[in-house]
Amino acid sequence: MLSRLLCLSCLVSCLLAAMASAHDKPNIIVIMADDMGYGDVSCYGATELSTPNIDKLASEGMRFTSGYCSASTCTPTRYSLLTGNYAFRTKGTGIAPPNAPAIIKPGTETIASLLKKADYQTAVIGKWHLGLGGDNGPDWNGQLNPGPLEIGFDTCFLLPTTNDRVPQVYVKDHKVLNLDPKDPLWVGNKKPSEDHPTGITHRDTLKMDWSHGHNSTIHNGISRIGFYTGGHAARFRDEDLADKWVEKSVEFIEANKEKPFFLFFSSHDLHVPRIPHERFQGKTNLGFRGDSIIQLDWCVGELMKTVDRLNLSEDTMIVFCSDNGPVMDDGYKDFALEKLGNHKAAGPYSGGKYSVYEGGTRTPFITRWKGHIPSGVSDEMVCTIDLAASFASMVEVELPAEACIDSFNVSAALLGEMNAKGREHLIQQDNGSSGTFGLRVGDWKLQRHSRKSSRNRIVEQQLANTKVPEFQLFNLAKDPAEKNNVIEKYPEVAEAMKQKLNIQIVAGRSRFDE
Ligand code: NG6
Ligand code: CA
């Protein structure tokens, strides 16, 4: 009798342990939009289009009003998301050119390598834009190594850069998919021959005209940044990208439904060239930029459906975020600005992509984990850079002191726990390591505009349509649009903020205490 009882209690405790570990180790899907602003989805106030799937995600989870990415361009935000380090600390983390080598070196701790320590199956599907290959860059016809597989991902299915850059091929693990060795792929930044058609020589044949840059090699009627030849069997159509990301993600989720998995779903929507699938074209009055938002919303819906169909909704945490704020004309004449109407892509904020105004980095940010995250709205400050430390904590993997040096464990806030705190301060950067920064602490926001980088100063001046001083101070609670510089009224606040920014830059890290 006693031994039976013991057996039974053993069974119960095993079951409880199994339940606890299922709870502790949710599947994780991070959906990152590209160039999506705070006001681009209806649950964040958009009225000129409707995003029912993203809205559903928000209504079933936590919608953050102070959710950020760490930079206002793609490569540095993605670098920080994966490594948990501010990108400005490392040279070469600005927007990556077509032939960039792998920016995150093998051996660097990343979200994926941390989750691997907790036995996760890990995948990145979609836009990469963090370089591939050793110091000489990608060997397009050989092994594309190192890449995601050398920093903790078990598998990858990628658009190697952004789709306005060459080449238009998929990379599966270490290889260009469907590459015919008899038709090798060449990628470069010089015109390969006199008669090579470009967006300049064959402008009248283009299906979407360019407005600046983007006038080199033509593929699918669109001229791009950079040149390439060959690899014809491997080339894709822009219209099919979103379908491909969904197809490959569904395959990955199905194959791993029994074990914990981490999927980084890295959408290309709504980056230029905005060429949504034909079935989404014309779905909004906002042109292809709006239609691309609808396409992304469809992708989110497909991922949610898959998770539901496999009965994984209560075992899967989904995070929705963006890599930088909005931009209208980013090099192609897709009439995003002309068709904007009343749409406010950055919501109440100023600036957007390339900017340290709030519009550059304050973006939609949603977490959903059915049965675990209550539905609601959170004003706590969280950032994509915090996902590494937060996930590590959730799955009880120790964070090495030298890794993820700017990533804070805000898991309690992400999980919507009562009275949970987000981060207290956040440095916002533009592209690369120009020295132009935003620092938010509570309601205060300091902007420091580098005097070194004239390009940045020009961009900021255009955005603000005024001469931007080196330092500006704003009270975001009273002035979310950062229009009223109060630095002269609050000199001591500004001084403390300047010092705080300096200390964090000079110290070389901002996570000390965990
Ligand atoms: C810029 C491109 C822009 C876009 C951006 C990267 C020009 C004139 N502009 O240099 O079109 O590709 O880089 O965007 O070429 S990001 O979202 O991937 O950072
Ligand atoms: Ca981007």
Question: What does it look like?
Answer:
With 514 residues, the chain is an alpha/beta fold. It folds into 2 domains: 26-421, Alkaline Phosphatase, subunit A; 426-507, 2-Layer Sandwich (Arylsulfatase, C-terminal domain), CATH 3.30.1120.10. It contains 11 helices and 18 strands. The protein has helices at 2-24, 52-59, 74-83, 111-116, 241-255, 287-309, 358-361, 387-394, 411-414, 454-464, 491-507, and strands spanning 27-33, 62-68, 121-127, 155-159, 171-172, 175-176, 186-188, 218-219, 222-223, 227-229, 261-266, 316-322, 366-368, 376-383, 425-429, 437-441, 444-448, 471-475. Helix 2 (52-59) crosses helix 6 and helix 5 (241-255) packs parallel to helix 6 (287-309). The protein starts with a helix and ends in a 7-residue tail after the last helix. Bound molecules: 2-acetamido-2-deoxy-6-O-sulfo-beta-D-galactopyranose and calcium ion.
List keywords for this structure.
25% helix; ten-stranded mixed sheet; single chain; Alkaline Phosphatase, subunit A; 514 residues; 16% strand; four-stranded antiparallel sheet; Arylsulfatase, C-terminal domain; binds 2-acetamido-2-deoxy-6-O-sulfo-beta-D-galactopyranose; alpha/beta; binds calcium ion
